[in-house]
Write a structure and sequence with these properties.
about 230 residues; alpha+beta; Alpha-Beta Plaits; nine-stranded mixed β-sheet; 6 helices; binds uracil
Length: about 230
């Protein structure tokens, strides 16, 4: 692929701006300053440095984020900081899809991927990827069987929706984990509302068999390995 197209795709600027970088001698390929902005490069093999930055490239990237409370799961937002705003270089050079949004006041495991088919596999209920949440409730937990068997909630379009069977583990009087298949708008909050309780704190702690990495501080990301990705679908 042409180096100007490659770097422009990675948000180093328009093709014209990349041409300027080449003219200024800011770009090296395998240690050699280049002067040809149409140079054919192999992203997987060549080491490309722009200014001080060694260009990082993978054909497909999937990240885990420990989403903090207070940021929105969106690519852009006029008012609020988004999860995309939290991603730094080198990953900020890629375009990510959010695989299963979390509410602004929800924290925990968020997966972001450049891979459209993986996105679909994670969020499609037919793929049977369970999402596990840690919930803190206003009132002591009761009526768990009702919740596990399925309750009627409103979905994002305000239509009645019966939740699929789910699994609940009580941790203490007001704290539990809930494992659900679907990802309807405010689903966990609405499920507990359906049994006349209220979620006061919500954290996603696993997607499939992939747990949130405890070492990730709120707002931090890490790239998932192939093994991690297999664990999502295990
Ligand atoms: N269910 C909710 O109610 N909110 C979330 O952020 C995720 C699941």
């Amino acid at each position: 692929m042409r180096i100007d197209k490659f770097l422009s795709n990675l948000k180093f600027g328009s093709r014209k701006e990349v041409h300027e970088l080449v003219k200024k001698g800011y770009i090296t390929v395998n240690g050699v300053v280049i002067s040809d902005f149409g140079l054919d490069i192999s992203p997987a093999l060549d080491q490309i440095i722009v200014g001080e930055e060694t260009v990082y490239y993978q054909p497909s990237i999937t990240l885990m984020m420990n989403k903090p409370k207070g940021v929105v799961s969106a690519n852009t937002d006029l008012l609020d900081k988004t999860v995309i705003d939290l991603i730094e270089i080198p990953f900020a050079r890629f375009d990510f899809n959010i695989a299963g949004r979390l509410d602004k006041d929800t924290e925990g495991l968020l997966i972001l991927t450049t891979d459209g088919s993986m996105l679909h596999q994670i969020i499609s209920p037919s793929k049977e990827v369970y999402k596990t949440y840690l919930v803190e409730l206003r009132d002591p937990l009761t009526r768990t069987e009702e919740l596990e068997n399925g309750v009627v909630i409103k979905d994002g379009k305000n239509m009645d929706f019966t939740t699929k069977p789910c699994f609940i583990k009580q941790i203490n009087e007001k704290v539990a984990t809930i494992k659900i298949l679907e990802g309807k708008f405010h689903q966990v909050k609405r499920m507990f509302e359906a049994i006349e309780n209220e979620v006061v704190a919500l954290k996603r702690i696993a997607i499939g068999e992939l747990p949130l990495d405890d070492n990730l501080l709120p707002g931090e990301v890490k790239e998932l390995s192939q093994v991690d990705i297999l664990n999502i679908f295990r």
